[in-house]
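Dear U.,

Please find below the material for section 3 of the report. The protein was modelled together with magnesium ion; I have listed the sequence and SMILES used, followed by the predicted complex structure.
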Amino acid sequence: MSAAVAIEVEGLGLTFASQSEAPTIALQDVNCRFEPGKVTALIGPSGCGKSTLLQIARGFLNPTRGRLRFVEIASGKVAERPAMATVWQAFNLFPWLTVIENVAFGLELAGVPRAERDARARKAILAVDLNGFENKFPRQLSGGMRQRVGIARALVMEPEVLLLDEPFGALDAQTRLVLQEQLSKLVETSGTTAILVTHSIEEAILLADKIIVMSARPGRVCDQINVTLPRPRSYATTHEPEYAALFDRIYGQLRDEVMQAMIIESGGG
Ligand SMILES: Nc1ncnc2c1ncn2[C@@H]1O[C@H](COP(=O)(O)OP(=O)(O)OP(=O)(O)O)[C@@H](O)[C@H]1O
Ligand SMILES: [Mg+2]
């Protein structure tokens, strides 16, 4: 059984240096916390540093200021890097491997025996509704199906920390709902600490226990909201008054921040 791990972010900053241009301050003084067994959504304008934050968590980038730590809930001690799985924005499947080989790849790296690897991969493939496609190659799948392979590849690892960068972007509404539901159940029962980057306010409210709203670049935390709407949440939830209030609160903040981001992108800020 995996340990419950919280992620603590304190005074986190990251500046990308450039030889020819001015440096890009991607993140500035970010403070927040991600709890185990919960889905925390990160929402904010394009370019505000959401993917950068996930890359720091994954260990692919080092912060220039502050820190991001993993804390074991049981002991309160700072943990080593926990078992992590990631679904990136571009779902990098191996084109030369079949669906089942892609899904089982991480297990193979981890030295899981073939029979167990196969059984776990089939279970994950079933969870994303791709049974029958085990032996197809990525090029034979639609964009949405590839994305589901990416999600299966993360689920199969039963990770302590699950990082999701707009994982549902290319999916049709129906599949999206089914997978969103499965994701919240999985996180709740497994104690996984999940960070979900999304551009969809609806997705954030339906899926998350907490929503962190980020400012335009340089990304800072401008609001943190606990979502207490009862589960299971569904399309019907979007008719609740509490949903409307949350939506308005987040929409208002994002509108201001997106305007700001557009000014920066167009070189006016
Ligand atoms: N490797 C890099 N080198 C230089 N600048 C970078 C690098 N990666 C990202 N950036 C810049 O850092 C800022 C934050 O990028 P990031 O990808 O984290 O944004 P994001 O919030 O994930 O955006 P989106 O919603 O569009 O995916 C952007 O201005 C981006 O151009
Ligand atoms: Mg991104």
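For the text of the report, you could mention the following: Residues 29 and 176 are 33 Å apart (CA to CA).

Regards,
Y.
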